[in-house]
């Protein structure tokens, strides 16, 4: 009598994921709707539904939970989304390497120091791999300085802090996260009166947000230390000489998010990508890499 094999299928027997089906899956996941995805992909919702059904059958998993007006990913769908994005990116890089014309030249990228460590290493390595003939000049500075260099055609792209409420904004917002109070864990700076804070110089949106919040809450403060670089502000906090407003993702031990009920809320901090008019192909490709880096976290 024949018996069913309990051995795992060989690698040769594993199904291959079609890149077009993956593109459909990623587009639906990011748009949250079959209807919106169909408009982006120029196909009918029913055609996309059939693709997803076949993909679910291939993987033996349910990828979406269908609601009345939108869809959301299951746990398995969230896992596949990460793989799908990476596979599509790798596919694009491979095709570009052989079919796209060689891009040469120079790109000037301005970036604030709060963003440097978060995305720059990955952006540079991916861009250098796909466009090795392009020279990338990176300038780290304050948002106001970078925008001035961009307007003077000294930079092609600039990642800057987005303008606050009531101010004219420039570029595309590519990242947003809470701005929170930070200080040394177990420190006493937060208990002092007037409250010692460490901030950047005039013109920094964090400074404006912080001081406005303290003024509106009626909290007495003094600017104890001033530095335009995050490392300088971190030094003051590590020494327990001051506290400050920081993006949540930048807080690492022994610093901590302060939960003092007397400290006022600060709202969100946003990063905008601003492009110089008339940029070339290399700048546009680098801009795409920057947006992808923020999207992938």
From TrEMBL:
It holds the Pfam family LysR_substrate. One of its GO terms (molecular function) is DNA binding. Keywords: DNA-binding, Transcription, Transcription regulation. Residues 17-74 form the HTH lysR-type domain. InterPro entries: LTTR (IPR050176), LysR_HTH_N (IPR000847), LysR_subst-bd (IPR005119), WH-like_DNA-bd_sf (IPR036388), WH_DNA-bd_sf (IPR036390). SUPFAM superfamilies: Periplasmic binding protein-like II, Winged helix' DNA-binding domain. Belongs to the LysR transcriptional regulatory family. This is LysR family transcriptional regulator.
